[in-house]
């Protein structure tokens, strides 16, 4: 009798275990990536604050309480399942399949009243080792923001800044002088997302080289941001959740996203980016004529 009960109990437990395992495997199975045009504005409803996206600020006591909280554990498990579904191999496959065009740029820039805010991100710049907030530099200027995690993404995003064959890229030292002369109300922001501690260490060691490559006025506009401070929800909202992609965002003086693109620039996309910048500069001039 006892042996029969043990066998039945073990069978039931095994069935429950494999049922849960199958459910988790199903949850972590990645969905096929669908390339869509960004017809609707992307971003966040609320303006960014310096306290946003600063990493895990919980105390040890709060972490223990959260660990013992069943609802929060369930929520964390779902978040981990989503993270696992976006593994490195999935990113490689998706990047190759789309050739870096993870979404298609909108055909024109979004109106200010419809546009949404770019979030705050925290990281070091090239001036010193202190932590800075991106929201502090995104106000009062038109900003062309590029986000990348890999060299592939960084290189593909460069293609938006080479506007003519006989001109230097706006990212170069001399090219940035031309950029400032042509677009005096604008700035270029780099957000280099470090995926892990190894890459963060490598970027730290490369700071001197990065300073030498970038115009001095851009040193406080080049941010090194740990990926762990950027939630999957944030990355999905900005459509920059692929490790190998290079992403471009054009922001107005309020920090609202007015246009976005990714991957290698087509001629049409490059022309549209700079048409957007010129349009936003005209908007700014009309709003603040006294500053001219």
Automatic annotation (TrEMBL):
Swiss-Prot/TrEMBL GO biological process terms: mitochondrial proton-transporting ATP synthase complex assembly
Biased composition (Polar residues): 51-60
A Gene Ontology cellular-component term: mitochondrial inner membrane
Pfam family of the protein (one): ATP-synt_10
InterPro entries xrefs: ATP10
Chain segments carrying region Disordered: 39-60
Database matches in PANTHER family: MITOCHONDRIAL ATPASE COMPLEX SUBUNIT ATP10
Protein name (database record): Mitochondrial ATPase complex subunit ATP10
Native source species: Wickerhamomyces pijperi
